[in-house]
Structures are given as structure tokens and as C-alpha cells.
Write a structure and sequence with these properties.
The complex is a heterodimer of chains A (310) and B (181). By secondary structure, chain A is α+β, with helices and mostly antiparallel strands. Helix content of chain A is 44%, strand content 18%. In chain A, strand 6 and strand 7 form a beta hairpin. Chain B contains 7 helices and 1 strand. Classes of the chains: A alpha+beta (310), B mainly alpha (181).
């Protein structure tokens, strides 16, 4: 592009000083090419803004509006929660003006961050509208979502919901989760104190599972805890826990779509161990957890760093 | 204005992000996915939003870079504007209190911009339609400001070639915030 053209554009748009204008006008008189460019640029002075404002576009989809509102809300809450713990949470150093680079969108939900998944599902959990997530699941994992929902009839509703939630999880999801023992420890404390759940976070390293995060969710306005572990390979595995005063129930396994679900009830808590079947024997693992054959993490604040050190 | 305010601002920005995403992607499903992805990334990086950066143009930049990465991932060229689905990107102007001539003019303007080569079209959308400054457009597209200006000049000459014969008189100026003087 010739500098000339940029100067001519500025001239046409009335952005030059009077003496610059005079110079350009002399140039136009001397050059037919410049005069032609000026004519084209003048003809391009159109009301683009108004023209495009009248363009008939489809309205913003309700589903998108709801998702954005949910994630904005979730993020506001998250910011507020983090703000309250600023003294204990190390903030990562990030170049403030670094250009934003997004990973490819190969799969729509492949790398949905945890808090977004939580935001989407929290809405469904709270409103008892989990089935609305059906299309979302189908989008993320063609074929598997509908299969899961279709065969989930014999599961407790909360387990079906948790299975759906777990399908949103990939290893990429956990890439956004910071390993922060203080935060996890605080979450566990809050669950024990505020939600009244006598929660144990099983230490599953002996089964090759690394503790990643613990989250407070809700199902029908009741606390639901999701503990996420990462196996050496394959998608994450979750242990979900809800209060349930019914009698204890033995460990039982079932397959829901591509997910393996192991459930049991013990000491007024319902458990669901959820994951893909690759690599980890969830049935055996469920039995070990229910038999308290594994240690627990975050049994008290001082053990945190030690428990995670290995 | 900083990143902490971003969650509250996103719902209000949504219609413009949606329109921009639709216009650059030319596909309703891509646009929905794109806006969602961009909002996720923006909220994760809200702390990077500088007080002197316009949140909307910052969001445009995220929408745009997300789309570019998507195209790279798909390893396909952007479909040409001629292949767009007219069912949802109609160039017919909304007939609110406008005479047929104005409507025709508006739809011709939209068509002219849509026919531009992709790089020029995005610059026109940002500068002439969204009202971004050259500098803001340069930041959105991560290209030098001179490149923005040269693309804009080429784009305008191409559009001008379509309108020059029957509309010699300038209608309304291209508005933007800065000056190159």
C-alpha cells in the first residue's frame, strides 16, 4: 500500500491540516491516478453503521444469553470468593497486555473450564432442569450424552445429573484448575461446617489417582460435593457425595453410556464414583473407599501440604 | 473500568458480540460457540483487561482470535461471503421508517462489505461498522496500525467503485475515534 493512499484517505475524511490539504490538492491536480483514488474513497463514505444496524440478524439465542449470564454470575462469585482469600492465594504473574490466544475450538466443550461447567450445571441442578443439558452433552460428546441420559432411569436423579456433569470433564478441563491445597482445604472445611457433611477426601494415590479439586455444587438446593481425581491417563474421575439419611447401601456398579458409575450409601452419605472404565477398576476402588481402606486428605489443615507432597 | 467489572458487562455486550461473531463466522452455530468460548476466555483473563482498554474492543479481539484459531484448527479457508446462508444473514434492511431507496442503499452497503476479501472485510466491520479507532482495530487484529489503514483504504476503494457511479455525493462520513494526522 502506498503511503499516498493513506494520505488521500485522511484527506477525504477531512483529517488533514489546511496546509496538508493544499499539498494533497496540488498532487490530485497533477495525478489522474490520485484523483481517481480520491473519487473512489469519496464514494466509499457511506453510513456503514446504520446500514449494518438494519441488517436482519437472528436474535441472540436464549440458550446463549442464559449461558453468558450464568458464567458471568459464576465468575462474579468466584472473584468475590478469591478476593476474600487474597492473602492466602498466590496470584500467578501474567503479562497484563499479553495478546489473547485461544486454543482451537475443535470440540465445543473439550476444554470447558471447571467453573463454567459448574455454572452451566449449577443452573440445571438448582432448577431441577437437568434434562435441558441434554443438547449440550450431545454437542460435546456425540452419541454418548443421549445414551447416558436415556439409560440413566434407574439412577438417583442426582447421580444421573452428576454423571452428566462428569461427561463435561476432560483432562483439559483440569488444566484450568490450580493445585492449591489451601483453597481445597478451605473448601473441605466449608463443606464440613456449612453443608454439615462429614466429608472425607479419600487419598487415592495408591490407585494411581491424583487429587485435583473439590467443588461445592447443589442439587435441588442441597449440597452436592464433587471430588475430582486425575488418573495417569484418560479422563478425570469424580467421587460425588450427597447427604442421605436412608439406611446404608452396599456398593453397586452400573454402566451409563460410556461412564462407569459405582454407588453406595454409608453413614448418611450417598456416594457416586464416576468415570470412564479405562485403566481404573472403579468397582474395586469404590469398595476400598467404603471400607475405609484408603487414607484421607485434608483431615486437618496441617496435614495438607504433607498429604499432597507425594 | 477494569476486569472486575467484566462479568457484569458481558450480558449487555452480548448483542454486539453476537452480531460480530455472526458476521465474521457466517454461521449461527459457529457464532454461538464462538461467543461462548470468547466469554469463557475473557472471564479467565479478566485481570488482563487494562483500565484504558475499551472492554468491547477487547472482547472483539478475543472473539476474533478465537475464530482465527478455530479456522486454523479446521484447516479450512473461511467460506467466501458468496456462500453465506441468506436465511439468517439477510441483507434486506429493516423497513423501519425508511423509504425503499434507503433500504436498497443499506442492503447494497452490506453486500459490498460482505464481498470484500476476508482481511479487508474484518477491518471494515471493526472500523466502519463497530466504530473502533485504527489503533483499536490494530489491537483487535494483532496487526500494525499501518496494515489496518492500508486494508481499510483498499476496502473503501473497492466499495467506492461500486457506489461511485450512482452516488457521487458523499452520504455520511465514516466515523471513528482517532486521526492519522
Amino acid at each position: 500500500m502506498k503511503t499516498d493512499d493513506l494520505l488521500l484517505m485522511a484527506y477525504v475524511d477531512g483529517e488533514l491540516a489546511p496546509d496538508e490539504c493544499r499539498e494533497v490538492e496540488e498532487h490530485i491536480r497533477a495525478s489522474a491516478e490520485a484523483a481517481e483514488t480520491v473519487a473512489l474513497l469519496r464514494a466509499s463514505r457511506l453510513d456503514y453503521k446504520r446500514a449494518f444496524a438494519t441488517q436482519k440478524l437472528p436474535p441472540v439465542p436464549d440458550s446463549l444469553t442464559q449461558k453468558i449470564e450464568a458464567m458471568a454470575r459464576a465468575h462474579s462469585n468466584k472473584s468475590a470468593a478469591q478476593g476474600a482469600n487474597d492473602s492466602s492465594i498466590p496470584t500467578p504473574s501474567v503479562a497484563p497486555t499479553a495478546p489473547v490466544r485461544s486454543p482451537p475450538v475443535r470440540s465445543r466443550l473439550r476444554s470447558v473450564p471447571t467453573w463454567l461447567a459448574a455454572a452451566c450445571v449449577a443452573g440445571a441442578f438448582c432448577g431441577g432442569l437437568f434434562l435441558r443439558l441434554g443438547p449440550l452433552l450431545n454437542t460435546g460428546a456425540p452419541g454418548s450424552g443421549s445414551a447416558a441420559m436415556a439409560s440413566a432411569g434407574n439412577l438417583s436423579p442426582w447421580v444421573a445429573a452428576a454423571v452428566g456433569y462428569q461427561q463435561l470433564y476432560t483432562r483439559d478441563t483440569l488444566a484450568y484448575v490450580e493445585d492449591n491445597p489451601q483453597v481445597s482445604s478451605k473448601t473441605v472445611e466449608d463443606i464440613r461446617r456449612d453443608d454439615g457433611l462429614a466429608l472425607r477426601i479419600p487419598d487415592l494415590r495408591s490407585a494411581g489417582l491424583t487429587f485435583k479439586t473439590v467443588q461445592r455444587l447443589h442439587f435441588n438446593n442441597k449440597p452436592l460435593v464433587q471430588i475430582v481425581y486425575l488418573p495417569e491417563k484418560g479422563p478425570p474421575i469424580a467421587l460425588c457425595v450427597m447427604k442421605n439419611v436412608n439406611p446404608d447401601q452396599a456398593v453397586a456398579a452400573q454402566v451409563v453410556g460410556t461412564m462407569h458409575v459405582v454407588t453406595w450409601r454409608q453413614a448418611e452419605l450417598s456416594y457416586a464414583l464416576i468415570g470412564k472404565t479405562e485403566g481404573v477398576d472403579l468397582d474395586a476402588l469404590g469398595k476400598r473407599i467404603s471400607n475405609r481402606e484408603v487414607d484421607q486428605l485434608f483431615s486437618n489443615a496441617t496435614s495438607v501440604s504433607m498429604a499432597l507432597a507425594g | 473500568m477494569n476486569g472486575a467489572d467484566l462479568p457484569g458487562m458481558l450480558p449487555d455486550m452480548l448483542p454486539r458480540l453476537w452480531a460480530f461473531a455472526l458476521r465474521i463466522s457466517g454461521d449461527r452455530h459457529d457464532a454461538e460457540d464462538l461467543v461462548q468460548r470468547a466469554c469463557v476466555r475473557a472471564l479467565e483473563r479478566a485481570h488482563q483487561l487494562q483500565p484504558d482498554t475499551d472492554p468491547l474492543s477487547w472482547m472483539f479481539s478475543i472473539v476474533h482470535s478465537t475464530w482465527i484459531n478455530e479456522l486454523r484448527a479446521r484447516s479450512v479457508r473461511k467460506r467466501s461471503s458468496m456462500e453465506w446462508d441468506d436465511d439468517f444473514l439477510e441483507n434486506v434492511a429493516d423497513p423501519v421508517d425508511k423509504g425503499p431507496e434507503t433500504q436498497l442503499m443499506h442492503s447494497q452497503i452490506i453486500s459490498a462489505v460482505e464481498r470484500l476479501p476476508e482481511a479487508q472485510r474484518v477491518v471494515m466491520l471493526l472500523v466502519a461498522v463497530e466504530g473502533l479507532s485504527y489503533q483499536e482495530a490494530a489491537e483487535v487484529l494483532e496487526i500494525p496500525i499501518g496494515t489496518v489503514m492500508s486494508r481499510l483504504s483498499r476496502a473503501r476503494q473497492a466499495v467506492g467503485a461500486l457506489f461511485g457511479t450512482h452516488d457521487p455525493k458523499p452520504k455520511v462520513s465514516v466515523t471513528r475515534k482517532d486521526s492519522i494526522a
